[in-house]
Amino acid sequence: MRPAFLVLAAASLSATIVASSRAQEDAAPIFGITLPPGYREWKVISVAHEAGKLNDLRAILGNDIAYKAAREGQLPYPDGSIVARVAWSYEPLPESAEAFGQAQSFVAGKPTNVQFMVKDSTKYASTGGWGFAQFDNNKPAGEAVHNACFACHAIAKGRDLVFNRYAP
Fold it and tell me: Selecting from 3.50.70.20, 3.30.390.30, 3.40.1360.10, 3.40.50.300, what CATH number does the domain 29-159 have?
């Protein structure tokens, strides 16, 4: 009975180590954030078009806590809030060019990345209470990307570091 127990315990420990290693691989560096399950089902807080180098379309989503805070204009956002930014390149809708004689309507093209802000005022106290994450093709972006998040968002300090507002 003892050898069977040891084999079972070793297998369990091995599975735990593999799962832990996989979780670390899937987590964004610095902040340790992973892709939240079901985030694409969250409510839309806003939409945006980013010009310049990024030149993309964005949907800003919020979990229930973030959505309620955004809708009510609550600042700072409460702990537990998660804001997601899903981005796509965009391309002209062929039917619009045909209908209007020029490219006029644009639709989402290839996905570019997804970013998250997770509010935990204790865990992320050094970055304004927010943890940040970016994923490209469902894999966390590198540490250099994550090192830039807080500095960029600090400009929106008056809105608790969140760039977008609720769009009724």
Answer: 3.50.70.20
- pTM, two decimals, is 0.82
Q: For the residues of 5-54, what is the DSSP string, one character each?
A: HHHHHHHHHHHHHHHHHHHHHHSPTTT---PPTTGGGSEEEEEEEE-TTT
State the Cα–Cα distance between residues 14 and 43, nearest whole angstrom.
39
pLDDT for residue 22 is more than 50: no
Distance CA 108, CA 57 (A): 7
The reported pLDDT for the residue numbered 24 is: 56
Q: Sketch the domain layout of the chain as residue ranges.
A: 29-159
For CA atoms 80, 64, 60, 114, give the dihedral sign: positive
Write the pLDDT tens digit of every residue in 129-168. Answer: 999 999 999 999 999 999 999 999 999 999 999 999 998 8
